[in-house]
Design brief:
Elements (H helix, E strand, L loop, with lengths): L3 E2 L17 H7 L14 E5 L16 H7 L1 H5 L1 H7 L4 E8 L5 E3 L12 E2 L2 E9 L4 E6 L5 H9 L8 E5 L5 E4 L5 E3 L3 E8 L5 E2 L2 E4 L22 H7 L7 H8 E2 L2 E4 L3 E8 L3 E15 L4 E14 L2 E6 L3 E4 L5 E15 L5
Parallel strand pairs: 5-12
Antiparallel strand pairs: 1-20, 2-3, 3-11, 4-13, 6-9, 6-11, 7-8, 7-10, 9-14, 15-16, 16-17, 17-21, 18-19, 18-20, 18-21
């Protein structure tokens, strides 16, 4: 079995992502999905997912990706990892923020307090578009202590004043490891590769949500209800031994490195313990050997993926998956796309 193109409309409802904007539809999904999304807040598109909350489906037959992989795990995931896990660890999202997200943190994969159906997260952010002065919150400022954070939260914030605010622009990338306090600021569109324990729900703990209140549809409403917070768990899973200030920001910033240059440029955008994400830029061809489960998301132009077992074409706003057993993979691209593969032996 060769590469598979996935359905393009795996969206979170506005009530779940009330901070969402309109850029996912406007920039990537127009013409691919129902026009009803044109003026609705759309925070996340789960492009490649076997996570039970929002699982991906194949475009050709609408079968769940998890079912397809489960029929042939060695083929899709590769060797011993396929037998051991049965499903891939990757989750790929497009995210757009019209408002600041909550200030949050993810637990580690090995956290003993997670329920059997829960998973920690490792994730990356690759900025696709950013409004003027837009930025992210990541880590705490110089000399901020756990006690200061606890005291701030006990009085209702503002927690953002204790965190590093980092202006961003298109092309920049950041690695958010478990235990790192973080939030995407307003006015940003990004692609977010993640790693989860297969078959489990990824866990996010919220420190603080700007003291906002919402109605049942996720619309800001001073007479509504706040989103649930997880203050103690957030504090408990934070890596307090991590750095602070500019030193910490520098440690999570990813610097691109060239894999191959030419008409089609391949760059390493993020290298994490669980996944590796490449950026493909330009118009040209390339070849690589598939060694693990991989996911491709096209954000500009088009990309064609061809293997001995089949091929798939992806226009902007479309995603597909490539099996570990694909062997030699030929790429023909014109624009911008992102290829994320599992790291063999990763989480």
């Amino acid at each position: 079995m060769g590469p598979i193109r996935l359905l393009a409309d795996n969206f979170t409802p506005p009530s779940r992502t009330p901070w969402g904007g309109e850029d996912i539809y406007r920039l990537y999904k127009r013409g691919l999905v129902s026009a009803e999304w044109e003026h609705r807040p759309l925070g996340e598109s789960w492009e490649v997912s076997v996570e039970p909350s929002f699982p991906s489906r194949a475009e050709s037959n609408r079968r769940l990706l998890s079912e397809i992989v489960g029929d042939a795990p060695r083929h899709w995931i590769g060797g011993a990892a396929g037998e051991r896990r049965g499903q891939p660890t990757l989750l790929i999202k497009l995210l757009n923020s019209a408002q600041d997200l909550s200030l949050q943190v993810h637990p580690d994969f090995t956290d003993a307090n997670l329920a059997p159906y829960e998973s920690g997260k490792e994730e990356g952010w690759i900025i696709l578009n950013a409004a003027p002065n837009a930025g992210i919150y990541v880590g705490f400022r110089d000399r901020v202590t756990r006690h200061e954070v606890e005291s701030c939260l006990a009085t209702g914030g503002p927690l953002n004043e204790l965190m590093n605010f980092v202006p961003v622009r298109a092309g920049e990338a950041f690695l958010i490891t478990p235990g790192t306090p973080h939030a995407v600021g307003a006015g940003i569109t990004l692609i977010e590769p993640q790693a989860l324990v297969p078959g489990r729900h990824g866990v996010t703990y919220r420190f603080w949500d700007w003291n906002r209140r919402y109605d049942a549809n996720g619309v800001l409403d001073d007479s509504g209800h706040p989103r649930p917070l997880h203050v103690q768990r957030s504090i408990d899973v934070t890596r307090w031994d991590a750095g602070r200030g500019d030193e910490f920001v520098d440690s999570v910033r990813c610097r691109p490195s060239v894999i191959s240059d030419g008409p089609l440029r391949r760059e390493c955008a993020i290298s994490a313990s669980s996944f590796f994400t490449e950026r493909w830029l330009g118009r040209g061809t390339g070849t690589f050997t598939s060694e693990s489960f991989g996911a491709v998301t096209c954000v500009k132009g088009s990309v064609r993926i061809e293997t001995d077992s089949g091929s798939v074409e992806l226009a902007a706003g479309r995603s597909g998956v490539v099996p570990a057993a694909a062997g030699v993979v030929h790429v023909e691209a014109d624009g911008e796309a992102y290829f994320t593969r599992e790291v063999v032996g990763g989480s």
